[in-house]
Amino acid sequence: MSADDQDLLDNHIQQERGQDDSEQESPFILSDNRIVDIVEALHSGYDDAVVHIIDDLSVREAADLLEKISEEERELLLTRHAAAFKPETYSELDPELQNQMLSKMPPKYVAAIISELDSDDALNLIENLDEDARRDVIHNLSASLRIALVEGLNYPEYSAGRLMQREYVAIPQFWTVGKTIDYLRAAGDDLPDYFYDLFVVTPTYKVVGEIPLSRVIRARRAEKIDTLKLEDIHPVPATMNQEEVAQMFMREDITSAPVVDEEERLIGMITIDDVVDVIDEEAQEDMLKMSGVEQSDLYRAVISTASSRFRWLFINLFTALMAATVISFFSDTIEKLVALAVLMPIVAGMGGNAGTQALAVAVRSLATNELSRVNERRVVLKEVGVGAINGLLFATIIGTTAGLWFQNPMLGCVIGAAMIINLITAGFFGAFIPIILDRIGADPAVASSVFLTTMTDIVGFFAFLGLATIFLI
């Protein structure tokens, strides 16, 4: 290694040890300073230093590096040093970026990466590829892995069959603890990298019990496996939706579960780290949907991103026109009292914000099964009550402010009354709209906000301008 390369490495090590206090670094995030160092080394031709630094990064840090640098720098880095990145790095990338990067690589190289991954990560990687690229990669895989991945792709998207890993530990029910321990020691690399439970199976591979590793370790060698197994097992059908899987893990407080096929035979397992990913993925998806974004488009091209968002904005344009139509009915009233035009956005904005709060609670509660027909009436009435209380409080504040501002006490009373009406409306529709959408089979996270905004705008404008027409003009 050259002296320049060594100096760069020394600088990198110095930053890691915290000797540069100019930036407060998080131990879980690759710092901007380190990214800049790698990019500078890349452009300066210090290849040995770049390889050493990448080798020193964790899988998540390496993924952060690839995600944050520019497209040109990414292509240069991978052209020179693709082999320096661990295969697991690619499974940590944003799906859109993952597809872009792997699609540019030779199919044989992508197949080599996939062959080094656990079966669940391998399936996740290959399902994000375009159909043509996927076919080419599968063609370059070993026969056994090819069969496993094609079988996994046949399961519904977002199902347990897509989520599971095919590496697991199954023990015949007639074995002893000693035989089991000997088997685990002899199996070595054939075992999953991480597992928490042993699955007890019949000769036909039907699951009859689960045994935490802690029980096996504490038991005597002569003890029968069948006497140690937990009777309360949690088999997951391969077709079960991943959201339901996550809910089961949270409800039952388990760390792993066997996945079974239609004939209830063991075909895989799901572990808690997979479920954490699902929870994070579903939370992000719902958040994006409520904003009218179908998926993260941070790495999409400008035209593609604009096109995907256009439909949602087009729908919002129509809802805005509906609200504008209501305002047009009271054009004469607004012309006679300009203060109404100044105060109108306050009523509509407060209603929208209050409704969004109720909406977020309702959508989350539906997603976690905390809200159902048993308690939906109580939840809606609670949100109406919350709207009424906050409406009274904010009516007092805005009513007093508006009355003093425009020297018109009646105007203060009008906007106060409109505020109460709109916040009650916001609470009601914020909770009620997701319930109705869920009942008819629509996704509350996608459509609720459009209907809610429409209702709070229309009711807010109509209440404020209607009351102003009656009492002020």
Total domains: 3
Instruction: Give the full name of the CATH homologous superfamily of the largest domain.
Output: SLC41 divalent cation transporters, integral membrane domain
| H/E series | HHHHHHHHHHHHEHEEHHEHEEHHHHHHH
- The value of Rg in angstroms is 30 Å
Uncertain stretches: 16-24
Q: What fold name stands as the CATH topology of the largest domain? A: Tetracycline Repressor, domain 2
Short précis:
This protein is mainly α.
Q: Could you explain the architecture of this structure?
A:
This protein is mainly α and 473 residues long. β2 and β3 (207-212) form a beta hairpin. It is built from 23 helices and six strands. The longest helix has 31 residues, at 409-439. The termini are far apart. The chain is globular and about 90 Å long. The protein folds into three domains: 3-163, MgtE N-terminal domain-like (MgtE N-terminal fold), CATH 1.25.60; 170-290, CBS-domain, CATH 3.10.580.10; 302-471, Tetracycline Repressor, domain 2, CATH 1.10.357.
Topology:
Layout: H1 3-16, H2 32-44, H3 47-56, H4 59-68, H5 71-81, H6 87-91, H7 95-103, H8 107-115, H9 119-127, H10 131-139, H11 143-153, H12 160-163, E1 170-172, H13 177-187, E2 197-201, E3 207-212, H14 213-218, H15 225-228, E4 236-237, H16 242-252, E5 256-260, E6 266-271, H17 272-290, H18 302-328, H19 331-336, H20 339-367, H21 376-405, H22 409-439, H23 444-471
Parallel strand pairs: 1-2, 4-5
Antiparallel strand pairs: 2-3, 5-6
